[in-house]
Amino acid sequence: MIRSLLNTANVGWFIIASFIFGTIFPTLRAVLIGSEGSTSVIDYAISAIPDVITLFIFCISLLIHKEKTGNYFFSLNKRDYILIFILAYSLIVGGLISGDIKLIVYSVRMTYLPMLFYFTARLLGSFWEEEFVFKLIKTFMYWLGITAIIGLLLYFVFDNLEEQLKDIVHANKGEYYIERLNSIYHAPTLNGSYMAMAALFFLMLWHFSINIPQIVFLFAISASLLLSVSRGGIIGFIVSASAGIVWIRRWKSTVFVGFLVLASVWVTSLAVGLSFNNLGWIFKSTASTVKMEEGVTRVGLWESAYTNIKDKPFGYGLGKSGWIAYRFLKDSDESSSYTSTDGWYLKQANETGIIGVLSYLVFFAFYIVHVFPAVKRNSFDLLMFILLLLFQVLLVCLVSNVLDYFTFNAVFWFLLALGENMASKRLAEKKPSLNR
Predict the structure, then answer these.
(1) Would you tell me how many other CB atoms lie within 10 Å of the CB of residue 126?
(2) Measured distance CA(66)–CA(74) in Å, rounded
């Protein structure tokens, strides 16, 4: 049993299984104990399952690395040191400034604990070949395709069941011309972010390998992304996909995949009664937000959050900004930045200060500079996908706090670490990328 756990391939599949479990856990938790805060030992035990799994996987990864190399940890590079600084600074300084144990625990669980998957992948990634990494990522993307189909069935066929699920988890019931699709994630923003990630993967893969399941998934994912009416996810996908298409320069296959995506958008729009003007609103609304026009709700939140940063440049501390602050401190007299719910950079600046958010930006800059030279053209390159995904998520973070959703956050950092490993290996060996 122990030997099987210490098998690197088995742990890789266990990680993917944990991500899949993470996407359905909010529903399971709500069904078992409700969606309110924990009040009993059983409630806390069930709520902590993803945290326990994360720590278990990290500990197993340490043991594997120790068994194979004689050391518990890997050789650190600049990016690793920056990320360790981010964690240490955030936990120590942010924790001291906050001083609220309950809010600190919530913040650590949402934002910082998932980052352990970066170090888990760094520990294991050197033992994985790109072929195996591709299988891991493809399996999770297939799961996202399945959730897209499930979401569409709930939206169009089993709408009564969808309403019941929304009531159970107290899910968002927002509308922008149409009822927004939450899918099994119970939040249109999170659904849009997952679908944008999966759409980018299948669109890039289309240029080099295509089959019936991938066609079905891309059609369903495009429809699910549109119905989420998540402007960040939609714009992020369009920008990242366009950059990928220009990079690989396979124009004929681009025409075909573009036709499939547009067909999905057209059929979905007809099904829900979306007009061309309604679709245009997504871009008009985005332009109004970028121009910081008066009367735009998100602009008002940004202005308030920016004022909070000027008042407290070192931040309010862990748990005192973003959705945690909105949930627990909105109606209290305690100082917080509960309006920083629609922009992850503003949220981080209000949580751990200007130093905190700048540290992340420095990490991402160093990461891009390191990874980009290892990306190759004219192939389905996992490294290219990860780099485009990074750009996509950084765009989404301008308008939402998507990196505060536990499983999405974990997947994001896991993929970044896989990209780090692949880039380092390619640059060291000076070998061409894996073609498919």
Answers:
(1) 16
(2) 9
> Whole-model pTM?
0.93
Alpha-carbon dihedral 190, 196, 199, 204, rounded to 10 degrees: -140
Diameter of the chain by CA atoms? 62
pLDDT for 291? 62
Q: Kind and range of the H or E element at 23?
A: helix 8-33
How many Cβ atoms are within 10 Å of 424's Cβ, its own excluded?
18
Please state, in angstroms and as integers, the Cα–Cα distance from residue 359 to each residue in 85, 356, 366, 379, following that order. Answer: 8, 5, 11, 33
- Is residue 309 within 8 A of residue 316, CB to CB? The reply is no
Q: Which residues of the chain are under the pLDDT cut of 70? A: 1-6, 170-175, 281, 283, 286-296, 377-380, 431-436
- Which pLDDT does position 435 carry in this prediction? 46
State the sign of the Cα–Cα–Cα–Cα dihedral 192, 198, 204, 209.
Answer: negative
Token look-up 């993929």 returns 415
**Per-residue pLDDT at 350:** 96
The residue with tokens 């200060």 is 353
First to last CA, the chain: 35
> How far is 223 from 195, CA to CA, in rounded Å?
9
**Residues 28/165, Cβ–Cβ less than 8 Å:** no
Structure letter (DSSP) for residue 398:
T
Contacts of 76 (CB under 8 A, 6+ apart): 84
* pLDDT score recorded for residue 436: 45
Task: Output the CA angle 211-217-218, nearest 5 degrees.
Answer: 90
Supply the DSSP symbol for 434.
P
Residue 175: strand pairing partners: 179
What is the SS3 assignment for 178? strand
Q: What is the dihedral of CA 259, 265, 270, 273, to 10 degrees?
A: -160
The pairs formed by 371-378 with CB atoms below 8 angstroms and a separation of 24 or more are 371/419, 371/420, 371/423, 373/423, 373/427, 374/422, 374/423, 374/426, 374/427, 374/433, 375/247, 375/433, 376/432, 376/433, 377/247, 377/248, 377/249, 378/248, 378/249, 378/250, 378/435
Q: What's the pLDDT at 431? A: 54
Residue type, 428: A
C-alpha to C-alpha distance for 195 and 52, rounded to whole angstroms: 27
Single-letter amino acid, residue 393: V
Length of the chain: 436
The residues that bridge with 337 in the sheet, in sequence order, are: 321
